[in-house]
Design a protein that fits this description.
The structure is a homodimer. Helices cover about 45% and strands about 15% of the residues of chain A. The first copy, chain A, has about 220 residues and is α+β, with helices and mostly antiparallel strands. In chain A, strand 6 and strand 7 form a beta hairpin. Chain B binds a DNA duplex (30 and 30 nucleotides) through helix 3.
DNA sequence: CTCATTTATTAGGCATGCCTAACAACATAG
DNA sequence: CTATGTTGTTAGGCATGCCTAATAAATGAG
């Protein structure tokens, strides 16, 4: 009934993330995200559908309840791993994603719980994303991208949708991390940058980047 | 030149352990240890020899320098993982082996170093086996099995060559763990049990078990 | 010395997951 | 309406690592 491999976990996790980002999830989008060829993904999709982990209709790839449960377990292990790496082993937030991608498949349910306990049951990963609890319950705050704020509006950073180490390093030097308050000073027209104020300093921020920073 | 997979790591690690236990390492012994069929092992042995990780002569399977280096890296990661599990995450010594078997293949050199540093560069795993340093240098104490002690002799436990959780739990209830002093009260004849004294209590201990406990 | 057992290998398969090349199905721009 | 591009699938392969059955070689017991 279960029949799970690390690859299947990887696919389900990706599908979960992509469907959060935007519906529907297409074969090509998934292939790109996993860095695989479309036919490889096509094949696996058929297999996952056969295991009742996803449904594959006209309107794209959707996780079934069972598939969603597994995906959230993997995400929980991923984000707990990241917290372990930053809070206990002293990694910086830009160094943890790749490492966690490997750890998430090597962690038993027991270890998952021990990590959570040892860290005081953290609610989010270092990038601000919520950690599903052990029953798969996921608390999502109502947020909007920084790029949608108008001049003079402000918000508190909740999360940063970015995995690229270089970009995360850059954001850290600006102090753009969860729980930090940002104020938009100015929005340049024609899709130009935002001028933001973070703890006393002013920076110009591209729209692209700003859209990945979620504030409340 | 490298070309490494988790399976190859697993084989090299097993060969290293088996050759420490007893020379020479045979295909069948390796197959039994890895819980694989002899032909599967035979095949992999040929592959490992082709990669210059082992030599396969009349007198069994031997690691080359290169193979030994990799094996020690894996063992380092395994034992550091065990320490992480006991010292930081609160696992008991009988719960860590299997978990570490998965972690050892998921840990980057960076994480390896961070674990070591965070734990104060531990010299042994929870079972008393030495942890190779980052250059692969391994300090081995001169030890002998508890089973070789005569009546009235005593020693300090250095390590316990056992992975079975049940047995480790049992030994822990007797207090037979590294750094503990044991005195042999009596040795029953005809391969019978040893009567040992540990921190004030007396226990009868089978020869088989006693041979796995190394003392100095 | 011979028969039997253990030990190692060859032969032939299979599942998993990946690939490229080729084709089909659809949207849309001109 | 046709040409072009995007998207998805089939077809055919390949590498990795495992298996069983059969065979060959070495060891040991009577």
């Amino acid at each position: 009934m279960e029949a799970d491999t690390p690859r299947i976990e990887e696919y389900l996790e990706s599908i979960y993330k992509l469907q959060q980002e935007k519906h529907p999830v297409s074969t090509s989008r998934l292939a790109e995200h996993l860095k695989l060829s479309p036919p490889s993904v096509s094949e696996m999709i058929r297999k996952l559908a056969g295991k009742d982990l996803i449904s594959h209709s006209e309107k794209g790839i959707c996780l079934t309840e069972h598939g969603k449960t597994i995906a959230k377990k993997v995400i929980r292990r991923h984000r707990l791993s990241e917290r372990l790496l930053t809070d206990i082993l002293g990694f910086k937030w830009d160094e943890v994603h790749e490492e966690a991608c490997r750890l998430e498949h090597a962690i038993s349910p027991e270890m998952e719980e021990r990590i959570s306990e040892s860290l005081g049951n953290p609610k989010t990963c270092p990038h601000g994303h919520p950690i599903p609890d052990k029953d798969g319950v996921l608390i999502t705050e109502k947020v909007r991208p920084l790029s949608e704020l108008k001049a003079a509006q402000k918000g508190i950073i909740v999360s940063v949708f970015e995995e690229d180490p270089k970009m995360l390093q850059y954001l850290a030097t600006l102090g753009l991390m969860p729980d930090v308050c940002v104020r938009v000073e100015e929005v340049a027209p024609f899709g130009g940058p935002l001028i933001v104020c973070v703890s006393g300093s002013r920076y110009a921020l591209g729209r692209e980047v700003a859209s990945k920073i979620k504030v409340k």
